[in-house]
Specification:
Shape of chain A: globular
Structural class of chain B: alpha+beta
Order of helices and strands of chain B: HHHHHEEEEE
Number of strands of chain B: 5
Shape of chain B: extended
Largest sheet of chain B: 2 strands, antiparallel
Radius of gyration of chain B: 20 Å
Helix content of chain A: 25-40%
Oligomer: heterodimer
Largest sheet of chain A: 6 strands, mixed
C-alpha cells in the first residue's frame, strides 16, 4: 500500500466536501468535484455532496450510477431534492444524530419517524454511506482507492469521545483505514495558514488569541487558538472549544421562510410542504442579495406551483431589509451584554427522540457564554499577559461556514465582541482574511495531512475535554435523593494522540458475565485534574454528563457472577479517539484487558 | 410592478442566451467540436489524469440541457403556456422563477463570454481577415475591409459546456417525469 495523496474530508451536517494534494506537497489543497446523482439518470461532478440519503421505493426505477446500475438508494443532490418531495424516505442531519446521546446511535432510527415499511439505518451507517460514496466517486474518477490514501476526517470541536468514536467506526466501514480526526475550527485555521503561505506570521504573533467562529448549515462551533513563543519559535495551541450547538444557516433560512409564509397566509394563501422547502431555498437567495447589497431595500419572492401551468399559479411576496434585519441580524445575532447567556433547554426525557436543537437562537449569547466559560483558558500559557476582566480576550477572529458570508452578520458579531472587550479594557479583535468559508475545512484537513508528515506548523492542544467516570459512594439510601456520586478522572484535559494515562490504583469491581454501566462525564474547563483525581463535588456546569460507559467481562476463565477488581486505563489512539480499557489487578494471562464501550444509550 | 416588467425584458435576453447554448451545439458543427473539446475531462493539476474518459459521452446534449432548464427553471412549462391572456404582473412573476432557475443552470454548466469588448453603440473598425464566424455584417454591406461600423450586439460565445453524464438505460426524451403524489 502506498499513499500518494493526503485527503481531507469535511463530513458536514448538510454538505460533505473532499480536498486532496500530493503527499510530497508542492501544491495547494484542491477541493475535488466528484460525481453524484443529481436527478434520475443524470450524474454530475460537484464539489459539494449534500449529506442526504434517499431510499427508493420498490416501484421506482433504479438510481443507477456509472459504477452501479442496480442501486436502490442515492446520496447527494438527488437525495436532497427528494427530501422536499418524499421526506419520509430521506435521511438528513445524520451528523447531528451521531452526537445525540439520547438515542441508540448504532440502531436503525433514520429516517426519523418513517413508517415501518421503509428501510431504516443508524446514524453511523448514514455517515458510512456518505463516506462510501466519496470513496466510490473518487476511485471512479481517479482510479485510486481512497482507502489507500492518508485521510483526515473533520469533526466538530464539540464532538465528545463517543461521537468521535462512532465517526471513526463509519470511516473504517467505508474502508478508510488510514484515517485521523481533526477538529473543524482547527481545519479552518490550517486552511487559512495554507492560503496565506509564510505570510501568515505577519498576521499572527506571540500573545494572539484567535477566535474561530464556525457557523455552518446545521451547527455553530467556537474554538480559541493561542499563539505563543517558546524558545524563539512560534507555537499554536488550541486552548478552548465550545459546546455543541445545533444552530446554523438552515435555521436562519427557515426563519425567513416562515416570515414570508405568514405574510402569504394573511392573504389567504397556504403553502404545502413542497412549497415551503422551495420557499426556504428562495429565501436563502433573497437573503444573500440583501446581505451583500446594502442599497437594496427588498428582494422579490416568486414561488411556482407544482403543475405544468406556471402563469397564474405563482405566489408573490417580497423579503424586506427590515425583515432580514429583524429576523436574522437581531434575531440570531442580537446586541447583548457580555453577561447574557442562552436560554437553557429543559432536560430531554428518555422518550423524546427529536434532535436537541439549541433552545436559544442567539449566536451572540452562545458566544458570550463560551468566552466567559473559557476566561481562564490562556492562563497556563507563557507570555499571554495578565488576565483581567470577565471574558477570554480574542485578539483576532477567523470566520468559517456559509452563514458568515453575510457582511451584516459578521459586522454585528464583531460589534458585539468589540463592545464586550471594551468593557473589559481589551482592544477590539481584528479579522483574519479567510477565503471560501464553504470549502475551507476540507482544504485545511488535506493540508493537515502534510503537517502530520512534518511539513508545516502543527496546532497543539490534545483532547478538548477531561473525562470522568461516575463512582457511586457508599451511603445510606435517602428517599428522593440520588446516591452521592464522585467523579474519577480517567483522561485528563489535553492528552495528545498516541498518549497513555495510566491510573494510580483505584479499584473498581466488575461482575463477570454481566454488562456493567458507569455514568460518564466530560469537562471542557477543568484543565488541572490528573488521571486518578477523584472529585467529590464540582461547580454547576463544570461537568457535563455524557452517554454511559458499558463493559462486559467475558466469563472465560472466570466464574460467572464473580467480582473482578480492575483498574481503568485511558489512551488517545493515533486516530484521535479515546480508548478506555479495564485492566484486571490479577490478570489470567499477560496483557489481559477489556475495551470499554463508549456512547451507550442512556 | 415596474420592477417586474423591466425584469421581463432582461429575461427575454436570458431566454435568447439560454437557447444559444443548445441550438448552437445542435446546428453548429464547428462549435459542437469545440464544445466536445471543452467536455474533455479537466484535471486538477495535483491529481493524476483519470485512467479512462471521465464520463461516457452524453447521449443528446440538447435534450439534456432542455431537461436541466426545465428542472431548475421550469423553462418548458413557461414556453408551452400561452401568455397572451395573462397580465404583465403574472408574466413578470413567472419570469422571476424561470430567470432565477435558468440563470443558475447557465452559471453552473455553461461559460459564456462576449465576443466584443467594446460598448454597444460605439464605433469600431474591422480589419481585413476578421473572424467572419463571429461577426455578422448588417446594414449597407459592401466594399472591402477595413470596415467601419457601429457595434449593435456584442455577441456571445460559449467557452465551456459541462453537462451531466447520462446513466446507461436512462430515456433522455423524458425531460421531466410526470409527478403523482400518493
Amino acid at each position: 500500500m502506498s499513499e500518494r495523496y493526503v485527503v481531507g474530508i469535511d463530513l458536514g451536517t448538510t454538505h460533505t466536501a473532499l480536498a486532496a494534494l500530493p503527499v510530497d506537497g508542492g501544491a495547494a489543497p484542491e477541493v475535488l468535484a466528484l460525481p453524484q446523482l443529481v436527478a434520475q439518470g443524470s450524474v454530475e461532478a460537484r464539489v459539494l455532496l449534500p449529506s442526504f440519503l434517499y431510499f427508493a421505493h420498490e416501484s421506482e426505477a433504479q438510481l443507477a450510477l456509472p459504477w452501479d446500475a442496480a442501486r436502490r438508494f442515492s446520496v447527494g443532490e438527488h437525495a436532497r431534492t427528494r427530501a422536499a418531495e418524499s421526506p419520509a424516505r430521506v435521511v438528513s442531519s445524520a451528523k447531528s444524530w451521531l452526537c445525540h446521546d439520547g438515542v441508540d446511535r448504532r440502531g436503525p432510527i433514520l429516517p426519523q419517524g418513517a413508517p415501518d415499511d421503509i428501510e431504516k439505518i443508524s446514524p453511523v451507517e448514514a455517515s458510512f454511506r456518505y463516506l462510501d460514496h466519496l470513496g466510490e466517486a473518487f476511485s471512479a474518477k481517479y482510479g485510486l482507492p481512497l482507502g489507500e490514501q492518508q485521510v483526515t476526517l473533520t469533526v466538530p470541536a464539540s464532538f465528545d469521545a463517543a461521537a468521535r468514536d462512532l465517526t471513526v467506526e463509519a470511516a473504517y466501514a467505508a474502508g478508510l483505514e488510514n484515517v485521523t480526526l481533526l477538529e473543524e475550527p482547527q481545519a479552518a485555521l490550517y486552511a487559512w495558514i495554507a492560503g496565506a503561505g509564510e505570510g501568515w506570521r505577519t498576521h499572527l504573533g506571540p500573545g494572539d488569541v484567535v477566535l474561530v467562529v464556525d457557523v455552518g448549515g446545521g451547527t455553530t462551533d467556537f474554538s480559541a487558538i493561542a499563539a505563543v513563543e517558546r524558545d524563539g519559535v512560534l507555537e499554536l495551541h488550541r486552548i478552548a472549544v465550545g459546546d455543541h450547538i445545533l444552530l446554523g444557516g438552515d435555521n436562519m433560512d427557515l426563519a425567513l421562510a416562515h416570515v414570508i409564509a405568514q405574510k402569504l397566509a394573511r392573504e389567504g394563501k397556504e403553502l404545502d410542504r413542497w412549497q415551503m422547502v422551495a420557499l426556504t431555498h428562495t429565501c436563502r437567495g433573497a437573503k444573500e442579495r440583501l446581505l451583500s447589497d446594502a442599497s437594496a431595500s427588498s428582494a422579490p419572492i416568486a414561488l411556482a406551483g407544482r403543475g405544468s401551468a406556471l402563469l397564474g399559479n405563482i405566489l408573490k411576496s417580497e423579503l424586506t431589509r427590515e425583515e432580514v434585519t429583524r429576523v436574522l441580524v437581531d434575531g440570531f445575532f442580537p446586541v447583548v451584554p457580555a453577561s447574557a447567556r442562552p436560554a437553557a433547554r429543559a432536560r430531554v426525557g428518555l422518550t423524546q427522540l427529536g434532535l436537541p436543537y439549541a433552545a436559544d437562537p442567539a449566536v451572540t449569547k452562545h458566544l458570550a457564554a463560551f468566552l466567559s466559560r473559557q476566561v481562564e483558558a490562556a492562563d497556563k500559557l507563557a507570555g499571554m499577559g495578565a488576565r483581567h476582566g470577565a471574558l477570554l480576550h480574542p485578539s483576532a477572529v477567523l470566520f468559517n461556514g456559509g452563514v458568515v458570508k453575510g457582511d451584516a452578520l459578521r459586522t454585528r458579531l464583531l460589534e458585539a465582541l468589540a463592545h464586550w472587550l471594551e468593557a473589559d479594557g481589551a482592544p477590539a479583535p481584528r479579522v483574519l482574511p479567510g477565503a471560501d468559508p464553504d470549502l475551507a475545512v476540507a482544504r485545511g484537513a488535506a493540508y493537515y495531512g502534510l503537517v502530520r508528515r512534518g511539513q508545516g506548523l502543527r496546532i497543539r492542544g490534545g483532547t478538548a475535554r477531561a473525562y470522568y467516570v461516575g463512582i457511586e459512594s457508599p451511603a445510606p439510601a435517602v428517599p428522593g435523593l440520588e446516591p452521592p456520586i464522585s467523579a474519577l478522572c480517567v483522561a485528563p484535559f489535553g492528552m495528545d494522540e498516541g498518549s497513555h494515562a495510566e491510573l494510580p490504583p483505584h479499584e473498581l469491581g466488575l461482575v463477570v458475565g454481566e454488562p456493567v454501566r458507569f455514568r460518564f462525564f466530560g469537562s471542557s474547563v477543568r484543565r488541572d485534574d490528573r488521571a486518578g483525581t477523584e472529585l467529590e463535588r464540582w461547580a454547576p456546569g463544570e461537568l457535563e454528563e455524557l452517554s454511559p460507559l458499558e463493559i462486559e467481562l467475558p466469563a472465560e476463565g472466570r466464574r460467572e457472577g464473580d467480582v473482578v477488581p480492575v483498574e481503568l486505563a485511558a489512551q488517545i489512539t493515533p486516530v484521535g479517539t479515546l480508548l478506555l480499557e479495564a485492566v484486571p489487578r490479577e490478570p489470567r494471562e499477560p496483557n489481559e484487558r477489556w475495551k470499554i464501550e463508549l456512547g451507550v444509550r442512556h | 410592478m415596474l420592477r417586474a416588467v423591466s425584469d421581463a425584458l432582461t429575461f427575454g435576453a436570458r431566454i435568447a442566451l439560454a437557447f444559444v447554448c443548445f441550438f448552437r451545439v445542435l446546428f453548429d458543427g464547428a462549435l459542437a467540436a469545440r464544445v466536445r473539446a471543452a467536455l474533455e475531462p479537466r484535471l486538477e493539476p495535483a491529481l493524476p489524469p483519470p485512467p479512462e474518459p471521465e464520463e461516457p459521452p452524453s447521449a443528446d446534449p440538447a435534450l439534456q440541457l432542455l431537461a436541466i432548464l426545465q428542472r431548475e427553471g421550469r423553462l418548458v412549462d413557461f414556453l408551452k403556456q400561452d401568455v397572451a391572456g395573462f397580465p404583465d404582473a403574472d408574466i413578470g412573476a413567472a419570469a422571476r422563477v424561470v430567470h432565477e432557475g435558468c440563470r443558475k443552470v447557465l452559471a453552473s454548466h455553461v461559460e459564456i463570454e462576449s465576443l466584443r469588448s467594446e460598448d454597444e453603440g460605439s464605433k469600431l473598425t474591422l480589419e481585413t481577415g476578421f473572424d467572419r464566424a463571429s461577426v455578422k455584417l448588417t446594414g449597407n454591406v459592401g466594399g472591402v475591409a477595413p470596415y467601419r461600423g457601429t457595434l449593435r450586439h456584442k455577441g456571445w460565445r460559449v467557452t465551456k459546456l459541462e453537462l451531466p453524464s447520462v446513466v446507461a438505460g436512462h430515456d433522455a426524451r423524458v425531460i421531466y417525469p410526470a409527478e403523482v403524489e400518493l
